[in-house]
Design a protein that fits this description.
Radius of gyration: 39 Å
Strand content: 15-25%
Oligomer: single chain
Structural class: alpha/beta
Shape: elongated
């Protein structure tokens, strides 16, 4: 540009001609004339990059499918670039694309699909031994039923280590159960825990910025001996490490939406997965999270020698159907017929609701219901004995679909008395062992052509007893083979025929 400016100065300011300028600058006359006559000096736009083939091309359809599918999920439970990269590496043998290549494509695709922009988090520094506690939300499938999950997240800012536990609620039992599981797994208790103003822990925020804590949380805090810090309302950034780890765990351990058969077992596996996650370098300190976490462990308090019971005991009254309600009448649970219109004790844990009689003998155990809407947990098995007295109601109970098809068909076809007797034996054997074993005994008896109660009991004992099935005896070769003898029963037939004639006469 400087040479062009020089040519134009010689022409417009010095008054030199084309030839003179050409001799003075070394450019030919045509070039000199071109720059003198030039009118547009705007900077040209850069040429677009040539779109070339990429190693990622064959995986883009899969990536697009995941991201489009994510539009149905909550925003914070969608695939990140890191999660997509990890899944591609795991699910496609021979995958050899760099993370940067995947991240660039995902970033462009996110803007196209979601219109999202990536943010950032301010890093904080903490001393070893401290932890930050928070709840996050993420969906999961519990036995193929989609649930809104609440996962307890515990992060350790010094090492950037973290653990999570998934529950269906955010009550005191979930908070305590999650913390106890993590404390037991890591073998110690953080010296100081940072919290938001969680309702299970904080009863009231006082005018002097103090906190009135719930009795249950105070007992838990005193039992484990940790100090507490509560953030100002609406200031979650005060525990930035915890907020960041909530998102990290959701993206990396809860995507895609988990399918869970046993929540306790799933939580156990999550602890192990978090252990493995520490085998990576800290983003700033360049040391493994695991090595830094050792410094946290050295600062931790010891675990108490006495286990803590985080459950809550309530006294409830059942109705005429032997049912009781919790959560302001929205959640209904069954007991057993003999406890109708009576007082029972109920123990609430993070996972279960357990009913006890006046002597604290367990009556029944239900999975705990969550959600602010009407639900019912009905266990029909304790009602079997009563049902055996009124067998006509069988098809209108929850027991009927639990029975094997062969048993259903038999009960549909048999007499009132036979149905009554079969249900009585089923109830007795269920109480002795389990409903599934009792039902299997009934099924086997029916398949063998029997129907009576004694046969059902005998079959149950054979299926569930300690009788060892002996292998067939193999005779030695020295034992001679005896010829088979086919008896002639015609004489007996003749004799019976003559007796029959005598009876008729």
């Amino acid at each position: 540009m400087a040479q062009i400016n020089s040519i134009r100065q010689l022409f417009f300011e010095k008054g030199l001609g084309y030839a003179e300028i050409a001799r003075a600058t070394g450019f030919d006359v045509k070039t000199v004339k071109k720059y003198i006559l030039m009118e547009d000096f705007n900077q040209p736009l850069p040429k677009p990059k040539q779109i070339r083939g990429s190693k990622l091309d064959k995986y883009k359809e899969q990536i697009d499918e995941w991201m489009v599918s994510d539009k149905q999920e909550r925003k914070k439970q969608r695939h990140t670039a890191k999660r997509i990269f990890d899944r591609l590496a795991k699910e496609h043998p021979g995958f050899d694309c760099s993370y940067r290549l995947v991240a660039d494509y995902v970033s462009r695709k996110k803007k196209e699909i979601y219109g999202e922009q990536e943010g950032f988090y301010m890093p904080l520094i903490h001393i070893p031994g401290e932890a930050q506690v928070d709840f996050g939300e993420a969906d999961f499938f519990d036995r193929n039923v989609r649930c809104t999950g609440h996962y307890l997240n515990v992060s350790f800012p010094h090492s950037n280590a973290g653990y999570l536990q998934v529950f269906k609620g955010e009550n005191m039992q979930c908070l305590a159960e999650g913390l106890m599981n993590i404390f037991a797994h890591i073998g110690g208790v953080p010296t100081r825990l940072w919290f938001d103003n969680l309702s299970p822990a904080v009863k009231t925020i006082l005018k002097d910025d103090g906190r009135e804590l719930t009795d249950a949380f105070l007992r838990f805090k005193s039992h484990y001996g940790f100090a507490t810090v509560f953030c100002n309302p609406g200031q979650g950034h005060e525990k930035g490490s915890g907020e960041t780890k909530v998102g990290y765990h959701r993206r990396n351990m809860l995507v895609p939406v988990p399918k869970v058969d046993d929540l306790k077992e799933f939580n156990r596996r999550l602890l192990e997965e978090c252990d493995q996650d520490m085998l990576r370098p800290h983003y700033l300190k360049k040391r493994l999270h695991r090595d830094l976490f050792e410094e946290d462990l050295e600062a931790f308090l010891s675990l108490p020698s006495v286990p803590f019971d985080a459950s809550e005991i309530k006294v409830v009254r059942t109705n005429s159907y032997a049912k009781f309600t919790l959560n302001n009448g929205k959640h209904t649970y069954s007991t057993a017929p003999r406890y109708a219109k009576s007082q029972v004790f109920v123990q609430l844990t993070a996972y279960d609701v357990i009913a006890f009689d006046e002597n604290y003998r367990e009556i029944i155990r239900h999975p705990r219901l969550y959600g602010d809407y009407e639900q019912e947990s009905m266990d029909w098995l304790p009602y079997l004995t009563q049902l055996s007295r009124r067998p006509a109601a069988l098809k209108y109970t929850g027991i009927y679909p639990m029975l094997p098809q062969e048993v259903q068909a038999f009960l549909d076809s048999c007499s009132y008395q036979a149905k009554k007797e079969t249900l009585r034996v089923l109830a007795e054997l269920s109480e002795k062992s389990s409903f599934s074993k009792a039902a299997e005994a009934v099924r086997n008896v029916i398949l063998h052509g029997a129907r009576d109660a004694d046969s059902i009991v005998a079959m149950f004992n054979r299926l569930n007893g300690d009788i060892t099935d002996l292998a067939p005896m193999v005779l030695p070769a020295s034992v001679p083979e005896m010829p088979s003898v086919k008896p002639n029963l015609s004489d007996y037939d003749h004799m019976l025929f003559r007796e029959g004639e005598a009876c008729e006469s």
